[in-house]
Description:
- The complex is a heterodimer of chains A (about 400) and B (about 200).
- Chain A is of the alpha+beta class.
- Chain A is built from eight helices and 24 strands.
- In chain A, a hairpin with a 5-residue loop joins strand 4 and strand 5.
- Chain A is globular.
- Chain B has two domains: about 1-35; about 45-185, Cytochrome Bc1 Complex, Chain D, domain 2 (Orthogonal Bundle).
- Chain B is built from seven helices and four strands, in the order H-E-H-E-H-H-H-H-E-E-H.
- In chain B, strands 2-3 form a two-stranded antiparallel sheet.
- Chain B is globular.
- Classes of the chains: A alpha+beta (about 400), B mainly alpha (about 200).
- Chains A and B meet through strand 4, strand 5, helix 5, strand 13 and strand 14 of A and strand 1, helix 5, strand 4 and helix 7 of B.
Amino acid sequence: MKDSKRSSRRQLLQMGAAVGGGLLAKHEQASAAENKPGQLGIPLGPYGERSPFEKAVRWRRDTKTPETGSSFTPLQDSVGTLTPSSLHYERHHAGIPTIDPAQHRLVIHGMVNRPLSITVAEIRHLPSVTKTLVLECGGNSGSEWAAKNGPDVQRSFGLVSCSEWTGVPLRLLLEEAGVQPGASWVIAEGADACRMERSIPIAKAMDNILVAYGQNGEALRPAQGYPLRLLIPGWEGNANVKWLRSLKLTDQAYMARDETAKYTDLMPDGKARIFTYQMEAKSIITFPSGGQTLPGPNLYELTGLAWSGRGRIERVDITTDGGRSWVKAQLQEPRLPIAFTRFRLPWRFDGREAVIASRAVDESGYVQPTREALIAARGLNSAYHFNGIKFWKVQTDGTVTNVEA
Amino acid sequence: MWKLSVVVLAGAATLLAQTYGIGRPATPEQIRDLGAAIAPDGTGLPEGSGTVAAGREVFAARCSKCHGEKAEGAVGPALVGGQGTLATAKPVKTVGSFWPYSTTVWDYVNRAMPFDQPGLLKPPEIYAVVAYILNLNGIIGSDQVMDAKSLPKVKMPNRDGFVADPRPDVGNNVGNNVGNNVGNNVGNNVGKKAKR
Lengths: 405, 196
């Protein structure tokens, strides 16, 4: 993410411009012709498409170079707990490469007994693991550090998605190559144009990392790393190297740009926290949320998503009076660790202004903090890893906006 | 007793021996074609060298169209400035003010720049353009030559600017009760402000 004040101001201007997107959706809807009674439908097709009446799309922040940038998942339009692969958030640094899996190799080298070149087909035939996991960009909600924060769920919290991932344990591959004593880091590299690089401690590599080739029942999408990517449960998206082609075992971290110059949190004293990796507990109300309008006073189901890189969601509290009182929301079971957990609460909007928010608590007892508490601990320049409580204001006329601090 | 240990040993041996026999030996050429990751101690840096003067030319030809004539930033970010700003309200993070290792500049330029043609530069050109950027930031003198030996010895101004993350630093001190004090107090402010 771009971190400067200047770019966040530009971003906000663009956010204003993007509000017009709603109008576009309405216009498109008018052109989709509905079936008349007795009219034959369209023939069967080989690969499915959604209804032309469905308009949820990712939102992309404009960059001067379109190959580096991010696109945000429309969480406000999501139902259930999974993100369709086609709406998964994206963050790329040098575009999306087109890779033929028959030509692609994963090379394991450095401090190993047998440097190996492995084909994608070989990996697909190994014992596999399937896990539903949330993936969140380390820069998600970066706009929330500023006083003028994101106007809706997508633009404030949309760099997070949840998929079912399938792959092989990284440990299994490393053991095939034979890790030498003294190897303490794995340097992962992608096959994109910039050969994205991150350092991963060996303890985590031997624990629960997946080399994934599947997402939501099919092969990974190109934008998600086809044919192979790392999937590191609970860790910031950037470390989950896509288009994985090299794993080098070393005795030191390599201090790549994306783990020093980026994704480090600058504190008020000028020191930056490095190797944060784990994403903490977080939640967001998706209905009612910024940009939406309640048709009028009525009983509604307030709902949203909670997740934590630290494990399972234990509880979600809801306030509808600006934080004076909190009640427990109902949680959708099963609550999988490091996955979206949907919460729900019946709520009567009586036509009076209401300030609403959700607060997630994970199985370790970690409580999602307020923005104020985060700023008290980290100041205003840390840019990354924001997980503060997000308040929405439901106005008397039913329109919902953000609550600017 | 000895029987038991034999069983245990045999079990361990089977586990160790268990392999799917996947992959072919990776060839040295294959490994060389990978991104040539460079460690902070210089491990991985290739032969070759580059001067600040040569780097000025590489920069003008290959970099300035995106980073500006004097690396002040344009389509690509600024590569100079910001020293002394990290602890202020408006920190400016650049190679010169923020990056802790000179080797990272080499590694990143080698793998990712020029943005539209990564992999274009040969090692001597990379040493040169890195020397030029370091010189622009006042980190090395204009007569210094960068190579596999000298580059890792360059001490970046923010070399000691990184600390381990003490997380969880917030969010852990609140009890598990709904409606506890912290939630009430902190949330109150927000609610009040919202209503002006």
